Amino acid sequence: MNKRNRILLLAGALGLAGGLVATRLMTRSRGAVDVREGELPTAGVLDTLALAVDVLAPTFAKGVIIRRPAVVALAERLELDRRAIGRMQKLRNKYGSGPLMLPLPIRKQAVILTPEHARRVLDESPEPFSAASSEKRAALSHFEPHGSLISQCPERTARRRFNEDVLEHERAVHHMVDKFLPVVDDEAGRLLAKARTQGELDWDTFNAGWTRMVRRVVFGDAAAGDQTISDMIIELRKAANWAFMHPKKTGLRSRFLARIQSYLDRAEPGSLAAVAASVPQSGDTMANHQVPQWLFAFDAAGMATFRALALLAAHPDQAARARAELRSHPGIDRQYLPFLRSTVLESLRLWPTTPAILRQSTRATQWEGGTMPEGTGILLFTPFFHRDDGRMDCADRFAPELWLKDDKVRDVQDRDWPLVPFSSGPVMCPARNLVLMLTSVMLGALIGEDDGIHRLTPSQQGRLDPARLPGTLDNYSLRFVVGAHNDAGTTGW
Length: 493
Ligand code: HEM
Hints:
Elements: H1 3-29, H2 45-62, H3 69-78, H4 80-95, E1 100-102, E2 109-111, H5 115-123, E3 129-130, H6 134-140, H7 155-167, H8 177-198, E4 201-202, H9 203-219, H10 227-240, H11 250-266, H12 272-278, H13 287-314, H14 316-328, H15 338-350, E5 356-361, E6 365-367, E7 370-372, E8 377-381, H16 382-386, H17 407-416, H18 432-446, E9 453-456, E10 479-482
Parallel strand pairs: 2-8
Antiparallel strand pairs: 1-2, 3-5, 4-10, 5-8, 6-7, 9-10
Helix pairs in contact: 1-2, 2-4, 8-9, 8-18, 9-13, 10-11, 11-12, 11-13, 13-15, 13-18, 15-18
The protein binds protoporphyrin IX containing FE.
């Protein structure tokens, strides 16, 4: 970890901590200690500090909009995510159901502690729990100032609708499947060929192929080699990590949005840009401001796929099952691969790519414990729900069976205990199905019959203990051996 990242992590923690202490002292001097607006429980100063250090600081230091690889590596080494979950469990045990108010300096902030409250916040979005929270607006406006996720109604309605129409959120299989699957196969073949010459598959090789695939799916083959557009969004996302603390790169943002617009105008057949040209739009839609979210979020899908590959490499029986599924779903039948989709979902449950789901209340709301004031920021920390070993036997194990139930059973299960890597309710990710289709097919192609990935490299073995998977999995340092596999186990599956 370099000096800059160490300083960053420390500064994040200390900044938050310092601010908290300052507010607390100011509050004390006015004579108001624990009973604050409404009567929702309010965390004490030490608990708030502990939450800032164990939960907030690592989450933000890792990079909310684009990850900082050195901090992710440190988080795996120090088990920071496991520590964060432990902190949340302690808070729940101490303060009960919450929502728990935090005495923060510049804003009202609540943390969700129960499944019922998680469900309520997600179901009642965007009103009264707006997804366009101040910090999300500050961050995402660096590259998509009119994106659906940070828009308010009525504009939001048109933008959400556009995303749903193009990404086909209701359909398990996107109607362009026959165009997209060959693109995935082609890019998987290219990246495996490169890995073979290197003797291993590493993150950089995978990510380069994945990003090419994304450009082809989103814009068409004309964008296959357009590294410039990918570099542009990386630079804008780096600034976005700092939200309002970094000036906007408005010139770069304009050039980036114009480049997207030129692909949308071109509407190459076989791409999402062509689908975008075919769906209804209004003056509010601002299609070129919706596409940055796609490019940005496909990055998360790549990370989830690479970690899913690691899960299969560490679980030979499950890998054999995945390969059997591929044999029984040849060619275009790969459009729906339940087991491989569940494997990607498990990767996202264990290591969520959106660990902090944020909301902000647009009016005062009533809870069993009291009133939450208007304008309160709300944090739903998903790893706490996804990996609570007090409530889930399989919290730290690879459990694809969690996702193999039919939708109705899953709905009931979700109400009991929220597993929400794609969020839920009216702001749920509209690309969930598209993502699961593309990632499962890519994963299948990587573990292919004859010459695919068959295990983690020797130096990496032991990194994923099936009995207790790590709290964080640093995707950037994963490495796999490429070669002929053997389900009997002689080569490592
Ligand atoms: C593994 C990959 C992905 C994950 C885990 C993921 C997760 C999420 C989550 C958690 C949200 C909701 C955030 C909130 O509630 O505040 C969201 C929203 C969204 N996602 Fe994804 N996403 C992924 C990939 C994608 C991709 C590839 C696209 C587009 C091609 C996409 C498009 C969107 C859009 C447009 C929204 C905003 C929805 C709205 O404004 O209502 N996502 N995603």
